[in-house]
Each structure stands twice: as C-alpha cells, then as structure tokens.
Design a protein that fits this description.
Blueprint (H helix, E strand, L loop, with lengths): L1 E9 L5 H16 L4 E17 L2 E13 L1 H13 L3 E10 L4 H36 L7
Antiparallel strand pairs: 1-3, 1-4, 2-3
Helix pairs in contact: 1-2
Length: about 140
C-alpha cells in the first residue's frame, strides 16, 4: 500500500444528498482491495484563487489514504468524468505506510496545531484586554 493525499474541489451549491452520494463513491473506490482512509478533512466552501468554469467558490475535501496505485488511477478517472468536480489532485506521499502509526502521528499533529491555535487566541485576548485597560488612544496636537 502506498500513501496518497487527494484534494477534491466540488461545486459549492450541490444538494446534500448528491454530495453524500459522491463522497460514498470516492470512499468505496479508495477502499477496494484493502485501501484505507487515514484521515479525512472537509474544509468547507472557500473562494477559489481563480474562476473555474465561471465558478468562484468551491467545497474542499482532503483525504490522506493508504491504497493501491490502481485505486488512485480509478479515483482520478471518476473525478475527471464528474461534471460537479471542479478540480482534483492526488499526490503520492510514501511508497509504503503503516496505517495505524500514521493515524497516531496525524492525531498528534492535529492536537499540537489545536494547542498552538488556543495559545494564539489567548495571547490575542490578553493583548486586547491590555489595550482596553489603557483606555482610548489620545492624539496630541
């Protein structure tokens, strides 16, 4: 099994039922022949860097998967045929992967990122409270 990262951008205005059906299809392709999803992120709707087929926003999905090269090729083929998919890209990360250790590693990275974000929010809140204590800024003329 190889480790891949796949990013898929779809039209933002798709009905929930259709989106769920598409995601199920992608995940079934990845899972054939023993493939596994290591991590799945939904980034939500974001502004595109440039319009694609006159669409300026897209729903982002990012998968970290352990699967075969054949499955990734099939996923790529299916994504290219789907008119609701604006862009997709699959990148090989490693030639071999231990799924369980990779899941633990990604979990630790996510926890560290969450901790850094919480510290940044605390620091920002402390900075705001310090400026509030000083009072409004007075300009001297």
């Amino acid at each position: 099994m190889r480790e891949y990262e796949a990013m898929i951008i779809v039209k933002p205005d798709l009905p929930e039922a259709e989106l769920t059906k598409m995601i199920g299809k992608w995940e079934s392709i990845i899972g054939t022949e023993g493939g596994q999803i290591i991590k799945k992120d939904t980034w939500g709707v974001r502004k595109l860097a440039y319009p694609i087929r006159k669409v300026t926003r897209g729903s982002y999905f990012v998968y970290d998967v352990a699967t075969t090269q054949t499955n990734i090729r099939e996923l790529d083929r299916v994504l290219k045929l789907d008119e609701n998919v604006l862009r997709s890209l699959a990148v090989k990360l490693n030639d071999s992967v231990d799924v369980e250790s990779r899941k633990v590693e990604l979990q630790k990275l996510a926890e560290a990122a969450a901790q850094r974000a919480a510290e940044a929010m605390r620091d920002r809140a402390d900075g705001d409270s310090m400026s509030a204590r000083r009072g409004p800024r007075q300009d001297s003329e």
